[in-house]
Amino acid sequence: MIQDFKEDMMKTFEMSNLGLMHFFLGIEINQEKEGIFICQRKYTETLLKKFKMESCKTVTTPLVTGEKYQKEDGSQKVDGSMYRSLIGSLLYLTATRPDIMFATSLLSRFMQSPSQVHYGAAKRILRYLRGTKDFGIWYKSTNDAKLVGYTYSDWAGSVDDMKSTSGYTFSLGSGYFSWASKKQATVAQSSAEAEYIAAAATSNQAIWLRRILEDIGDKQEEPRQSTAITSQQLP
Q1: Cα-based torsion angle of the residue sequence 42, 37, 223, 233 in order, rounded to the nearest 10 degrees
Q2: Please, are residues 128 and 59 in contact by the beta-carbon 8 Å criterion?
Q3: How far apart, in whole angstroms, are the C-alpha atoms of residue 51 and residue 72?
Q4: Which tens digit of pLDDT belongs to each residue from 96-116?
Q5: Cα radius of gyration rounded to whole Å, the chain
Q6: Could you report the per-residue pLDDT of 63-101, keeping only the tens digit for each?
Q7: How far apart are CA 235 and CA 104, in angstroms?
Q8: H or E stretch including 129?
Q9: How many other CB atoms are there within 10 angstroms of residue 229's CB atom?
Q10: Which terminus of the chain is less hemmed in, N or C, by CB atoms within 10 Å?
Q11: Count of CB atoms within 10 A of residue 93's CB?
C-alpha cells in the first residue's frame, strides 16, 4: 500500500525516492524486517547538554510519587523564559516518550510564573531521561493489530482549583501510538464523575482513531477494548 502511494505521488508531483527514513524532525527511526523502533536519543542528549545535566545523577521516576504542586508554593520565582524553554522541549520529547507525558503536562501549568519547586521538578524529569535516553517505542510487524485503549483519572489532583486530570493511551499491535494527559475543564464532584469524564474523552478519541484506520484499509471489526484505571489502583 505504501509503495503504491509513493508511486501515485511521484506521478503527480516532482519527488525523489531517498529510501528508508532514518531521521525525521528529531525522531530516530530504525526500520527492520521484524518491526520499527522510534526514539529521540540524540534529541535527549542535546537537551541534557543545553541545561547542563549531561552528567547528573539519574532517578527512576519522572516525578516524586504523591507530590503536589501549586502556583504559589512560597519558593523563589525563577527565570520564566528558561522554564518555558525546558517545558517546551520536554513536550516535544513526548512524541516518543509517553512515560513523561503526565509529568510534563502537569508542570506546563506553571509556565506563567514558575518557582524553584517547579523548576526542580522539571530538572528531575531530565534526571529520569538521562537514565532512560535509549527508551522509545517498538512497533512489531504483525497481521493482528487490534486497537486497545486505557484511560485514567485522578480526583481533585490540582491544588489550585481542585480539578481532576484525565489521561489515555492507545496501542495498535505491539506499540502505543496515541496518548494524552490533560486537566479536566470542570470540577468533578466525585471520583466516579472524574472517571466518567476521562472515559468520555477516551471514547471520542477511540471513535476518531477507528475511522482513521478504516480510511487507510484497517477496519477494526471487533468492538474496541478500553480499560479504566482508577486512582485507587495506583501506588
Answers
A1: -60
A2: yes
A3: 25
A4: 999 999 999 999 999 999 999
A5: 20
A6: 998 899 999 998 999 999 999 999 999 999 999 999 999
A7: 19
A8: helix 116-131
A9: 15
A10: C
A11: 20
Q: Is 46 helix (H, G, I), strand (E, B) or coil?
A: helix
Q: State pTM to two decimals.
A: 0.84
Give residue-wise pLDDT tens across range 172-218. Answer: 888 899 999 999 999 999 999 999 999 999 999 999 999 998 888 87
- 129 torsion bin: left (phi>0), alpha (psi -120 to 50), beta (else): alpha
Q: What cell was used for 143? A: 497481521
CA-closest candidate to residue 77, choices 103, 123, 111, 47: 111
Describe the crossing of helices 80-93 and 41-50 by its angle, rounded to 10 degrees: 170
Distance CA 123, CA 118 (A): 9
Contact (Cβ atoms closer than 8 angstroms) between residue 142 and residue 174: yes
d(CA 37, CA 139): 6
Q: In 3-state terms, what secondary structure has residue 147?
A: strand
